[in-house]
């Protein structure tokens, strides 16, 4: 269960997932991260990149009766800009132009603007936000098709049909419930028994088994998994590029994903995944344990060394991390696996850092690669805290954020991919396919049905017989 699902100004990705039926963004995006109308009906981007003007949908109300208008958007997004600078890159301030027109003032128009406006910029009732973070954290109030009704920590979140929803005749369901089940076997049993209609982010083995039983599976690439070395600490063993390269050669990613991924994990040799912006064919360090031992010897560690891998059990399954540990041991790197609880993992990864070890990182953001680059490489965000960025990374990232054409975005994404690969900044492991398993009576859920993982339409879902 997420740490919160109602204080929209500080949402993270998994918190947004639970809040999506309750709160909505101004726009949706297509598979190429281009905007589609939602709470905003149309927009205008200044040719010089100094502002974006949104015209808002009329006749929309929040669940508490507050009117949706330009002031509501300014209050909601303005708080986000204040509390989480850089979450919408380039935005400096927000102005009310008229009752239903709002202007976002920008230093420049970032390439990831539309993606962030859809996936992070969810609009809450200003009346509700004025009550403060503690009152909102577990009580979302938006314009969505469902109105929040109740929750119980680590157990459920419930919503009921919002009868005044702006899309007339929707939603089709009278209510819904998120049930949080930690054990995969228990979750699979609940789905098979009809105690649930869908299982989101299902574990790979159970997804495979349920598909063999006739359940429908929708999946799409969703997250990049890597080992991030402590390269910021000057005394870290990972400051030596040869050591970092040795780790890549030591791990047989193809075998691990083939035997333990059940078709829902794919080996990865560089930043991006095949078929996505930034992928460079033949840029790889394939499994070669002899090469790994050679590099370790050249780095002054002929007998290997001891280290620690810090992981988060929810995102890094123990069996697959144990396999990684075994391959490292084969070349003399004795890695202790330490699984951190959620708070400590987030603290080390994003605030205080880790020392002389490897942080197993799980990064979402598909399908738009510049969005991923921004999340991971923007040092102002302080994510991947102990990973030093290679020379030229910051300048190239800034150019990518300001790139206005698909061609420029592609070229700069490939340039960043090569920079990271040449520096061996991190150890790519695999990318995950996020899956939802559905009972046959569930229709039009369209979650992970295409490349886009960051949105779905709960108002369209219906249950047949």
In short:
The chain is an alpha+beta fold. It has helices at about 15-20, 70-85, 115-120, 125-130, 135, 185-190, 205-210, 240-250, 255-260, 290-300, 320-330, 340-350, 370-375, 395-400, 405-425, and strands at about 25, 25-30, 35, 40-45, 50-55, 90-100, 100-105, 120-125, 145-150, 155-160, 175-180, 200, 215-230, 265, 305-310, 335-340, 360-365, 425-440, 440-445, 460-465.
Reading off the top of the CATH hierarchy, the class of the largest domain is best stated as: Alpha Beta
Distance between the termini: 30 Å
CATH superfamily of the largest domain: Dipeptide-binding Protein, Domain 3
Give the biggest beta sheet.
7 strands, mixed
Q: Quaternary arrangement of the chains shown? A: single chain
Q: Number of DSSP strands? A: 20
| Beta strand % | 15-25%
Write the CATH fold name of the largest domain. Answer: Dipeptide-binding Protein, domain 3
Radius of gyration from the CA trace?
A: 23 Å
Query: Average pLDDT value?
Result: 92
Count of helical stretches? 15
Tally of domains: 2
Runs with pLDDT <50, length 5+?
none
Shape: globular
List the helices and strands and how they pair.
Elements: H1 13-19, E1 24-25, E2 27-29, E3 35-37, E4 40-45, E5 51-56, H2 70-83, E6 91-98, E7 101-106, H3 113-119, E8 122-123, H4 126-129, H5 133-136, E9 146-152, E10 156-161, E11 175-179, H6 184-192, E12 198-200, H7 204-212, E13 216-229, H8 241-250, H9 253-260, E14 265-267, H10 289-298, E15 305-311, H11 318-330, E16 333-339, H12 342-352, E17 358-363, H13 369-377, H14 393-402, H15 406-423, E18 427-438, E19 442-443, E20 462-463
Parallel strand pairs: 15-16, 15-17
Antiparallel strand pairs: 1-8, 2-3, 4-5, 5-7, 6-7, 9-10, 10-11, 12-18, 13-17, 13-18, 14-18, 19-20
Helix pairs in contact: 8-10, 9-11, 13-14, 14-15
